[in-house]
Amino acid sequence: DLGETRGTVAVRMPLHPVAIELLERTGPMAVSSANRSGSPAALTAADAQDQLGDEVAVYLDGGPAKTGVASTIVDVTGEIPRILRAGAIDAETLRAVVPDIAG
C-alpha cells in the first residue's frame, strides 16, 4: 500500500552498496524515505528509527549516510520533465542528460 499517491509514484535508485545488494536479491521495493516529510534527513538507522519507530518493520543499517542532502525529484508525467525539488543532483547535471528539463 503506497497510500494516496494522486496517480503518481516516485522512483529512487540508491547508490549505497548495501541497498544495491538487497535490491539485487529482492528486485524493486516500495519503501518510504528514512524521515518524516518536513523533518531533517536521517543520517543513521537510529535517526530513522527515532523518527519512524514501529511504523517500519525492518531497518537496514548500512552505516551512517555520507550526506544529508535530499533526493532531487523530477516530474516526468508531462511533455517536458520538470524539477519539483532540487537536491543531490543539480539542474545543470540533469540538463547534461535532459537538455529541455524545466525548473
Beta-strand content:
5-15%
Q: Please work out how many helical segments DSSP would assign.
A: 3
- The total count of strands amounts to 2
Please bin the fraction of helical residues.
Answer: 10-25%
Shape: globular
What strand order characterises the main sheet? Answer: 1-2
* Unreliable residue runs: none
Short précis:
This protein is α+β, with helices and mostly antiparallel strands and 103 residues long. Helices cover 24% and strands 7% of the residues.
Task: Give an overview of the whole structure.
It contains 3 helices and 2 strands; from the N terminus they run ααββα. It is α+β, with helices and mostly antiparallel strands. A hairpin with a 6-residue loop joins β1 and β2.
